[in-house]
Amino acid sequence: MNLALPALIAFLVLLPGFVFRSGLKRTESESLDFSPFGRVAAEGVLFSLILHAVWLSISSLVGFRLDPLTLMNLLSAHAATQARGNVQIASQFGAISAYFSSLLVASHVVPALIRRAISTFKLDRIDTVAGSVFRFHDAPWYYLLTGADFEKQDEPDLIYVSAIVEVGKEAVLYVGVLNNFYFDKEGQLDRLILQRVKRRPMSADKSADGQDIERFYPVDGDSFVLRYSEAITLNIQYVKLTANEVGTVA
C-alpha cells in the first residue's frame, strides 16, 4: 500500500484551484496570505471543482475522456487497486499530462484576464450591485490611491497627496501629485512617489491677520519618495480637470 500516491494525486487535482484563487485575488501582500485557513481551503476546492468540470467538458469535445474510476483506483488504499490505476494512467499518460499542463497554464492566465475585465468594466465599484461579489476586499489601498471607485466619466485626472512629516522636530506639510505607490512584503503601504511637490512648515499656516499668503516652497527634483511610516497624517484629494486646466497641466 502506497500512502504517498493518494496524497500526490489529491495535491495535483486540487492545485489548479489554489493557483486560480491566488491569481484572481488582488492583494497588497507579497508574502503570506493571512486569510482564514477555512476560507482559503473552501475557495481553493471550489475553484478546483469548477475548473475540472470545465476542462473535462472541453476534453470530451476533443475526444479525450478521463475515466473517474481511474482516479478512484489511484486514491484507493488497496495495493492491487492502486496498481490497476497506475496501469490505466500509463496507457493515457500523454493525454493526462496535456490535460493537467493546460489546466495549470489556464489557472495562471484566466485569473489575470478576469481581473483586467473587472477593473476595465468597473464591476468592483463599491456602489454597484455586483461590487460585493467582484470587489477585491484585500486591497483597500488600491481603491483609495487609484480612484477605482469612480465611474468612468468621473475618474480623477490627478490625485493630490498631502502628508505631514516630522522634520527636525518640526511638522512639515508636503503636497504633491501621486505618481505611484508601493507595498512591503506584508502588504503595508511602504512608500508613495510624488511629483510637483511643495512643502511648508505647519507653523506657517496663515499670516497674523488671517490672510492666505504664499506659504509653500517647491521641492526640487522629478520624483519625491514619501515613506508612509514617516507620515503623521495622510490626505487624499481627487481632482477632475476642466478642458482649460488639462492644457495648462500638460
Key attributes of the depicted protein:
single chain, 250 residues, alpha+beta, SH3 type barrels, 6-stranded antiparallel β-sheet, 6 strands
Structural shape: elongated
Number of β-strand runs: 6
Distance separating the two termini: 72 Å
Q: Helical residue percent? A: 40-55%
- What would you report as the Rg, rounded to the nearest angstrom? 27 Å
Biggest sheet: strands, sense, closure?
A: 6 strands, antiparallel
What structural class do you assign from the helix and strand content? Answer: alpha+beta
Following the backbone from N to C, one meets helices and strands in this order, namely: HHHHHHHEEEEEEH
Query: Helical stretch count?
Result: 8
The number of domains: 2
Mean pLDDT: 84
Tell me the fraction of residues in β-strands, as a range.
Answer: 15-25%
Q: Flag low-confidence runs.
A: none
What does this structure look like?
The chain is an alpha+beta fold and 250 residues long. The chain has two domains: 4-120, no CATH class; 156-249, SH3 type barrels, CATH 2.30.30.100. 45% of the residues lie in helices and 21% in strands. Strands 1, 2, 3, 4, 5 and 6 form a six-stranded antiparallel beta sheet that branches. The protein is elongated and about 85 Å long. The protein starts with a helix and ends with a helix. The mean pLDDT is 84.
In brief, what are we looking at here?
The chain has 250 residues and is an alpha+beta fold. It has eight helices and six strands, in the order αααααααββββββα.
